[in-house]
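pinned: reference chain
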Amino acid sequence: MEHETVNAPAAVSAFGESSQTDASRTMKKKFKALEHFMNLVFFLCGIVAVAFVLVISIYLVISGLPAIIEIGPINFIFGTRWYASTGDFGIFAIILTSFAGTAGAILIGVPVGLMTAIFLSKVANPKAASVIHTAVELLAGIPSVVYGLVGMILLVPAIRIIFDLPSGATLLAAIIVLSVMILPSIISVSETSLRAVPREYEEASLALGATHIETVFRVTVPAARSGIATAIVLGIGRAIGEAMAIIMVAGNVANMPGLLTPVRFLTTAIASEMSYASVGSLHRNALFSIGLVLFLFIMMINVFLNVFIKNKKEA
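pinned: its structure tokens
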């Protein structure tokens, strides 16, 4: 009897530990099931993203390739005349204009955006940084048509007066508008990359006698190279893919690119003519071909920059 009385608490304790162990196993099973479920959700989301890219690619190839074959790849890519009324569909001038406009916007936007990101992340005091952050967020939220409207009302007349032109709707106006439009993407991504550089890198540079600015440009910026390159890719994508604002300030004429001449971009050619191109016509198919060429250009730019970044990292 005494033996049973002495062992009773031990039995109760063993029973309690067994219950806790069972509850712990049950919770682990639930968490494991939840983890498998979330992994499945993430996998499906990734598959959906890849599927969208494949569907867009296949659709553009199916819709755009017949026109390129009918017109002839050489005539289509290197032709300098685009007149739907006469059946001339050459996009060489439009391609050069898109490259020139994007390059000009990157040459202006990247230095300004990168310097702003450096100022916000490494130089500015919190109050100034807060004000500039608000301005950058407002720039990111402004619709494209508003950029085009402001450019058409203020920038285009100013260019016309300054350079004494019949019309200020020129490639220069498009470059200025695009350079402002790509600033939010470049600033936000570059700033995030600069802030992600380990503090130890900068402390080591300062300990060796470098000044703060030397440390920023010789240590922090090179260490954040991958993120800055991503910001440039986003800026290029925004610049080369913009249509609405460019229609309003570039003149929308298929000329060879000149800084003070009205021009037409690949995107504006599609946006301005798709509405009246009859279904099934060569004209409409040629517009889809422009979309295919634009899509291929963006893919080539992304692949080139990714390979360039990868090679830099390996080196």
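why pinned: Confidence is low (pLDDT under 50) at residues 1-6. The longest helix spans residues 2-71.
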